[in-house]
Design brief:
The chain has 295 residues and is mainly alpha-helical. Helix content is 66%, strand content 5%. It has helices at 2-35, 41-69, 80-93, 126-131, 134-149, 152-178, 192-232, 235-247, 269-274, 285-293, and strands at 72-73, 99-103, 110-113, 121-125. The chain has a four-stranded mixed β-sheet with strand order 1-2-4-3, with helices on both faces. A hairpin with a 7-residue loop joins strand 3 (110-113) and strand 4. The relative contact order is 0.16.
């Protein structure tokens, strides 16, 4: 059951990433068809933007997340139990010991960052450390280490970059339409149906990209939960931790919408109640607990 769930989640993620990539290329095609009268130029321009945008995003993502969250790096003597838990689980996961950070915040939460295991970091709020016992803390730490081992941070960073590129390209296309841009020169291949389809793609693509990014994020949370059980061999610790975290009403003060998907639980509790499931960065807590109970 556990390994079947891990395989299913990995397969779903691959399908979503393929869908994301196709969406990026289709938007590039639509822009090229609308404004340059061909099928290739828009795709080439989009790929050039991606080649610049993604490396920059990957290089700066980790430090940006840690700085924005107000995280402070600690050493073993600052919190021996936490260090021991992270060290034990990183050995089980066969990854280098990640750097350990603490966020001074009463809301219980945690996140991981680092585009590869060699540059991994895990951060825990003081609210989480105050409320959880060692078994529960191991469950949360295993979830975050699973994100690092599974390269989730890299995947989500690329997803954010892809959304950024789609929004950027679509905005350029929308402004060109708004200010009277359009096909250059006469064209006897003009197809009104394809033109309408291309315009709809330019307008709706940013919305579709957000849906796909959030679907990837939710799927990776399920996978990290299952991987955490694989590391600890004890689903009860993570189940009890998730219950405690979900019952706390506090928001994480320095969390940002751009980084909300990285936390083990959505850091804005009041906003979550107003969001539909499609717009959620995380799956429902009840669903996560139910899947853990079935392992």
């Amino acid at each position: 059951m556990l390994y079947q769930q891990i395989r299913d989640n990995k397969r779903k993620t691959i399908l979503l990433v393929v869908l994301f990539s196709v969406l990026v290329l289709v938007v590039g095609w639509a822009i090229g068809y609308l404004f340059n009268n061909d099928w290739v130029s828009g795709i080439v321009i989009t790929l050039i933007v991606l080649a610049i945008y993604i490396p920059i995003t990957l290089k700066t993502a980790g430090s940006q997340v840690l700085n924005m969250s107000g995280s402070k790096e600690i050493q073993r003597e600052d919190h021996p139990q936490l260090f021991g838990v992270v060290e034990e689980l990183s050995l089980a996961a066969r990854i280098p010991m990640p750097k350990v950070y603490i966020v001074n915040d009463p809301a219980p939460n945690a996140f991981a960052t680092g585009i590869k295991p060699e540059k991994g970091a895990v951060a825990f709020t003081t609210g989480l450390l105050d409320r959880l016992n060692r078994e529960e803390l191991s469950g949360v730490a295993a979830h975050e280490i699973a994100h690092i081992r599974n390269y989730d941070i890299r995947l989500m960073t690329i997803s954010v970059a892809l959304v950024g590129v789609i929004v950027l390209v679509a905005n350029i296309g929308s402004r060109m339409m708004l200010f009277g841009g359009g096909r250059r020169g006469g064209n006897n291949k003009n197809n009104p149906i394809i033109m309408i389809l291309a315009i709809l793609l330019v307008i709706l693509a940013p919305l579709a990209a957000q849906f796909v990014k959030l679907a990837v994020s939710r799927n990776r949370e399920y996978l990290a939960d299952a991987s955490a059980v694989e590391l600890t061999r004890n689903p009860k610790g993570l189940i009890k931790a998730l219950r405690k975290i979900s019952q706390d009403p506090n928001d994480v003060k320095d969390a940002k919408e751009a980084t909300a998907s990285m936390y083990i639980s959505y850091p804005f509790k009041k906003k979550r109640k107003k969001k539909s499931a499609l717009w959620s960065t995380h799956p429902p807590m009840e669903s996560r607990i139910e899947q853990l109970q079935n392992m």
